[in-house]
Design a protein that fits this description.
Number of strands: 19
Strand order of the largest sheet: 12-11-8-13-16-17-18-19
Largest sheet: 8 strands, mixed
Oligomer: single chain
Bound molecules: cytidine-5'-monophosphate
Number of helices: 14
Helix content: 25-40%
Distance between the termini: 24 Å
C-alpha cells in the first residue's frame, strides 16, 4: 500500500462498539507509512481508551475542541489532512456531517477539511436501514464522500444482520482509492486524445407518441464526458438527454439506437470510446405512422434486434480503447466477463442496478471495472468520482499497451 506513505490521515473514531476495530485500521495505516492522527468523540472514549490509539498512531489522540494548546485544532487537523477516515461512523456522526453540524472536534474537523473523506458506517440493522440514515449517506455520497458499506454479521447484543463494520482490508482499499482520486484539480492526462462518449437511454418509437425506453438518466455518461474534458481530451458526446456541459464538449442529441449508431460512426476514428448509453437491444419492427387508437383488445408489438454498436466498434479497428457498460440485475460479474470477451471491449464497467443507490437516475454509483488484467471495485460514491476511476483505468490500460 504505497498510496499511504508520508500521507497525513485523520482517523475519526465515533462511539460505537466497532470502535475497537478502528484500532486495527489505525495500526494498518501506520504500517503502510501514513502519519495518523486519531480524533475520538467522547462516546468513542467509552469503548476504547485514548491511550490505545495514542500508543499505536503517529500522534496522541485528540478529543476536544478546547483542552488543547492549539486554539483551533479542528482547522489545523482539517487543513493539514490528506485524507479523513471516519471509522466507525455512527448514525449520529453521519447525520451531523450531512447536516453540517459541528458539535465536537470530530464533526468540526469534517467540515474544516477539503481532503477526501471515507465514511465507514457501523450500527444495528434497524438504524442502518432507517430512511434518515440512508438519506444522509446518499447526500454524503452525492457530495463526493466515499461510503464503505457495512457487512452482514454478528452485531452487539447477540443480534445478527446488516450493519457490521466493513473488513479492514475493504476500508484500506477504499481509503487508498479516495486518496488517489484526491480533491485537487484533475491531472491533464488526456490532452491530444479524441474521446467519444454516449449517454442516456434510447427511445424506440411504437407510434408517433409512444416509445420503448429505459430508466437511464444519462448522468454517468455526462460525468465521463465532463471529466474527460477536464483532463484535456477533445470530447464528443452523443446523448439522448440534455444536461449541463462545458462549452468545449461537442454535443449531438439523438433518440433511437440507429441514430446513436450513425452519430457515433460519423465521429470515428477516436482514441477512446465510452459507451455509457443504455442502448435498446430491441425496437418495434414496424412503428405505426399514426397514433394507435385505443380498442380494448390485447395488442402485440413485434420487436426486432437493434444493431449492437459496441460489438461493431469492437470489430472495427477505428477505436484504440473501447469501454462498454453492463447494467445487470443477476449473475452480475459472470455476465460482464462474457461481455468483455464477446464484444471486443478493453474495459467493462459493471453495475448491479438492483442494488439501492446504484445505477439509473441517482447521483451515486458503485461499480466494478473489468479488463483483461483483472477487477477493480469502486465503492459507492458520486458519478463524477466513478467517471474519474473509469478514466484512470483507461489511461493505465493505454500506458500498458
Ligand atoms: O449487450 P448489452 O446491451 O447488455 O451491452 C451493454 C453495452 O453495449 C453498453 O455499453 C451499451 O452502450 C452497448 N450497446 C450497444 N448497442 C446495443 C446495445 C447495447 O452498443 N444495441
Amino acid at each position: 500500500m504505497r498510496a499511504f506513505a508520508g500521507r497525513r490521515v485523520v482517523l475519526a473514531v465515533s462511539g460505537g462498539i466497532a470502535a475497537y476495530k478502528a484500532v486495527e485500521v489505525c495500526r494498518r495505516l501506520v504500517d503502510a507509512g501514513a502519519h495518523v492522527t486519531p480524533v475520538l468523540t467522547p462516546a468513542a472514549k467509552r469503548f476504547v481508551g485514548e491511550a490505545t490509539f495514542s500508543a499505536l498512531a503517529s500522534e496522541r489522540a485528540r478529543l476536544s475542541l478546547f483542552d488543547d494548546d492549539d486554539p483551533i485544532p479542528h482547522v489545523t487537523l482539517g487543513q493539514q489532512a490528506d485524507l479523513v477516515v471516519v471509522c466507525p461512523a455512527t448514525a449520529r456522526v453521519i447525520g451531523a456531517y450531512a447536516a453540517g453540524l459541528a458539535g465536537d472536534l470530530l464533526s468540526a474537523t469534517l467540515l474544516a477539511t477539503r481532503a477526501p473523506v471515507v465514511v465507514c458506517p457501523a450500527m444495528h440493522t434497524e438504524m442502518w436501514e432507517h430512511p434518515a440514515v440512508r438519506d444522509n449517506l446518499r447526500l454524503l455520497a452525492e457530495r463526493g464522500v466515499t461510503v464503505v458499506a457495512p457487512e452482514e454479521g454478528r452485531l452487539a447484543g447477540g443480534d445478527t444482520g446488516a450493519g457490521r463494520l466493513a473488513a479492514p482490508e475493504s476500508i484500506l482499499a477504499a481509503a487508498a482509492e479516495a486518496l488517489a482520486a484526491g480533491p485537487q484539480a484533475p491531472v491533464r492526462d488526456m490532452v491530444g486524445l479524441r474521446v467519444l462518449v454516449t449517454a442516456g437511454g434510447t427511445r424506440e418509437p411504437i407510434d408517433p407518441v409512444r416509445f420503448v425506453g429505459n430508466r437511464s438518466s444519462g448522468k454517468q455518461g455526462y460525468a465521463v464526458a465532463v471529466e474527460a474534458a477536464a483532463r484535456g481530451a477533445k470530447v464528443s458526446l452523443v446523448a439522448t438527454v440534455r444536461r449541463p456541459l462545458p462549452d468545449s464538449v461537442d454535443l449531438v442529441l439523438v433518440e433511437t439506437a440507429e441514430e446513436l449508431r450513425a452519430a457515433v460512426v460519423d465521429r470515428l476514428p477516436a482514441e477512446v470510446v465510452v459507451m455509457a448509453a443504455a442502448v435498446a437491444d430491441y425496437r418495434p419492427a414496424a412503428p405505426a405512422a399514426d397514433k394507435i387508437k385505443k380498442s380494448g383488445e390485447a395488442r402485440t408489438v413485434t420487436l426486432e434486434p437493434t444493431p449492437d454498436i459496441l460489438a461493431e466498434l469492437g470489430r472495427g479497428g477505428q477505436v484504440e480503447t473501447l469501454v462498454g457498460f453492463a447494467a445487470e440485475t443477476s449473475d452480475v460479474l459472470a455476465n460482464a466477463e462474457a461481455k468483455l470477451r464477446t464484444k471486443g471491449a478493453d474495459l467493462i464497467v459493471v453495475n448491479d442496478v438492483s442494488a439501492p443507490s446504484v445505477g439509473f437516475d441517482g447521483d451515486t454509483n458503485e461499480v466494478v471495472l473489468l479488463d483483461a488484467a483483472g477487477r477493480t471495485a469502486v465503492p459507492l460514491t458520486s458519478k463524477r468520482q466513478v467517471a474519474q476511476a473509469i478514466l484512470d483505468r483507461v489511461v493505465a490500460l493505454r500506458a500498458a499497451r
